[in-house]
Design a protein that fits this description.
It is built from two helices and four strands; from the N terminus they run H-H-E-E-E-E. With 74 residues, it is α+β, with helices and mostly antiparallel strands. Strands 1-4 form a two-stranded antiparallel sheet. Strand 2 and strand 3 form a beta hairpin.
Length: 74
């Protein structure tokens, strides 16, 4: 993958540079599909007395860890 990235920075015509970028794109799409998961747009909201939600929420994987959340009376 690093070599493909480096190739896209090599001097050459616009067509050659673009072709190198497309090779990198194709390789990355096959090797790292989680980066392009088709997740719908969403907004995370939580109550003011619910704590730990920001620290223990992973927006990339949409993984929730409610076992680390806690409530306060305020």
């Amino acid at each position: 993958m690093n070599r493909l990235i480096e190739d896209s920075y090599l001097p050459g015509t616009s067509a050659k540079t673009l072709a190198a970028l497309y090779r990198y794109e194709a390789f990355a799409a096959k090797q790292l599909p989680v980066l392009w998961m088709p997740l719908g747009a969403s907004m995370a909201a939580h109550s003011a007395n619910l704590h730990g939600t920001v620290k223990y929420f992973n927006p990339v994987s949409d993984l929730l860890s409610p076992n680390y959340w806690w409530f306060s009376k305020a």
